[in-house]
Amino acid sequence: MTSNKDFLETIRQSFAAYLKVGTSRSTAKLKSLHGCIAEDLQEKFGAEFTVKSQGIGNDKEGIINGRYYIKKVDIVVSKGEKKVAGYSLKFVMRNYSQNSNNYFENMLGETANIRSSGVPYFQIFIIFDRVPYYKTGGKFVNYESITPHNLYKYLMLSRDDPSIFFHTPDKTLVLLIKLKRESGNHKFMDQNDYANYYKSVINDSDLLAYANRQGDPFDDGVIFNDYEDFIDRTYHVAIGKLKR
User: Fold this and answer.
1) pLDDT tens per residue across span 180-213
2) What span, in angstroms and rounded, lies between the C-alpha atoms of 57 and 21?
3) Which residues are bridge partners to 62 per DSSP?
4) Cβ–Cβ under 8 Å, residues 130 and 179
């Protein structure tokens, strides 16, 4: 089972893949994360269960027949032909504010589709505490600091009752990651400048850490900066529903 400390190393691998590819649209940045989580779930659920994901087995996503449409899902746990759980992951590395509502609305929609078909569904949301904002063409404009205001929608989500609202994930993991600051008064010119700097420090021991969050604490529906607890609690939710 991957520890919280070791999961930071998996996030490092994902960030390194993103810097190498140079685009947030590539799925390559997520393969190490998907594979790590899938392996932990396989260990947790045991040999009676099958886990499908990139980075494990045949390196393909799973499929769940939702209530409204068939959905490719990042990680799917099955027992025989029965889908036991689905896990979706989002790692935001740039231009968060202009897309934040779309991310959230898409998450609610896919969750409703899967959960209303009777399959437990879990979300993982990873973001740096400062996210670069680029104009079209890759010009660096500024950093967007992730504040309690930005996470307010997740605070409200944490208070929802999944037994009442099908759009609410059974559990959500929010990881707010502190990324090492550039030295001195250096200001990035563009996304290539940003990438080259972080490529140069990608192996530094202080590159990543879990960030503190100010403001109201999340309620039971959202787990903050604790990957180990998320895996354990989602396992118990899925097994509990399987036994009903």
Assistant:
1) 998 777 789 999 999 999 999 999 999 999 999 8
2) 24
3) 73
4) yes
Tokens 């990957």 appear where? 227
Chain-centroid distance of CA 89 in Å reads 4
Note the Cα 111 to chain centre separation in Å. Answer: 14
What one-letter code names the amino acid at 50?
Answer: T
pTM (2 d.p.): 0.95
Rounded Cα distance, 237 and 239, in Å: 6
* Residue 110 belongs to domain spanning: 4-242
Phi and psi at residue 175, in whole multiples of 5°? -115, 115
Specify the amino acid at residue 32: S
Partnered with residue 145 across adjacent β-strands are 130
On the CB side of 79, CA atoms within 13 Å amount to: 13
Backbone angles phi, psi at 36, to 5 degrees: -60, -50
Residue 129 neighbours by CB distance under 10 Å: 18
Q: What percent of the chain has pLDDT over 70?
A: 98
Residue whose tokens read 């504010």: 97
pLDDT for the residue 21: 83
Helix (H) or strand (E) holding 229: helix 227-242
